[in-house]
Amino acid sequence: MKWVILGYTVTYGALAGYVASLTVRLRNARGRLAEKQ
Amino acid sequence: MTDAASRRSFPRWLDIVAVLGVAAALGFALLTPAERTQGTPARMLYLHVPSIWLAYVAFVVTLAGSVAYLATRRMHWDHLAVSSAEIGVVFTGIAIVDGMIWAKPIWGVYWTWDARLTLTAVMFFVYLGYLALRRTIPDPPARAGRAAILGIVGAFQIPLVHFSVMWWRTLHQPPTLLRPDDMQIDGPLLAALWIGVAAFTVLYVALMRHRMELARIELVSYGEAIATVGPVAGDAVAAPEVTAGRSGL
What we know:
The complex is a heterodimer of chains A (37) and B (249).
Chain A: H1 2-36
Chain B: H1 3-31, H2 45-72, H3 75-107, H4 115-135, H5 140-154, H6 157-167, H7 187-229
């Protein structure tokens, strides 16, 4: 069971990390664009 | 609801459906009966197969976006290609890592230089190279054109990776999905697998919407930066003037 817990933690952690990274990049890009306009 | 409001609310609904789908996939994966020969470690199937499926889908979309960009030169297609490649790299990385975690209790090793594993790793690094290539070229049309060529060439690896388990003798099991004969998997396990595939596909669409918006904003920001400060590179460099009789030669 420990391998399954490890596998699911790593996968869902990686997905959450990517979603968080994309959210921050998108927010920063929108902010920079709004400042210029 | 107006069309504009409908368009704005669609991604939000899609995000919610994606999160609920991924949560449901997790529930089905953990509550489905254990597989008879491998037992609990076989539950990695419900992560591993959807992840590599998504990688295939993402890189096929990158191929389509690359071909469409070269045919039309419209930046929208480049946004599609780069967004899909980035998400494909994430899912390929996940497939490799959870495959290693699955391999350890079943094969006794995390990694072996098996045809499927090696070709998947090569595919991962080629698309990582695709993303790295894009960071070296600031001019959007030049970047899109060169990346499109790599996006097309890289897609040749997809059938190679998928059919490697049938073309060569490998330790890896034959494909679970997209195989020429019937799938050898019981109903409840297959249902959990399809729920995982469907959930990850909805998640991919939701991520694509956001990643493509980021690509669009970056293009607009680049255009405004050029309009404000002029070309960034090359302006400060001028050819030296050579005056007759003073060259020192």
